Amino acid sequence: RGLDAAIAALGEARPQVRAEERYLVDLELGRLHWIRGDAVESRDAYAAVLEYQRDNPEGLWGMAAALALADDWTNAWARYEEAVRLRTGVVELRADYARDLLRAGETTRAREQVEAALLLDAEDPTALALLGWVQLAEGAAPASSSSASRAMELGPWCDLALIVGARAQAAAGQAARAAELL
What we know:
The chain is mostly helical. Helices cover 77% and strands 0% of the residues. Helix 2 runs antiparallel to helix 3 (39-52), helix 3 (39-52) runs antiparallel to helix 4 (57-69) and helix 6 (91-103) runs parallel beside helix 8.
C-alpha cells in the first residue's frame, strides 16, 4: 500500500497497542519516517522508544540515524557511540555509522567503523561497498573499484556497491563504464 499508508496505519493502530509493546510500533515508525526522509518525525518516534527505555540499543541506533539525517552530527555521533557500546558486534550498525560519517566528511572515523564491520563479516556486501566509498574519498579509485566489484559479487542487490563502483570508474576516467554500471 505504500510508505505513507504504512505510516498512517501504524499511527492509527499505535494507541491500541499495549503500553509495554508500543515501543515496537515506535521503532517501525522511526524507520519508516527515516526511509521517507523525514528526520523530525523519525527522531520523534525514536525519542518515544528512548522514553520507554533509555538504553534501548535499536532506539539509540535509530535516533543516531535520524539525527544524522538532520545533519545534527555531534548528537548523532554520541548516540551512535552509545549504540555501538551496547551492540558492538552488529555489522549493520557499524555500516550505518560509517555511512553517516562519510556523509559528514569524516573519512578517517568512517574507515574505523568499516574495518570493525569487516572484522565481524569480511564478506558483508554493504561493508565492502562502504570500504570502496572510503577508498574513493581517500583518492584510491582502483582500490575503490575493486572493493565495489567484490561487494557486487557477494551481493548483487547492493545498490551502494553499484553507485560506489560507478563513482570509482568515473574517477578513473571510465565514464562509459560508470554509465553502464548505473
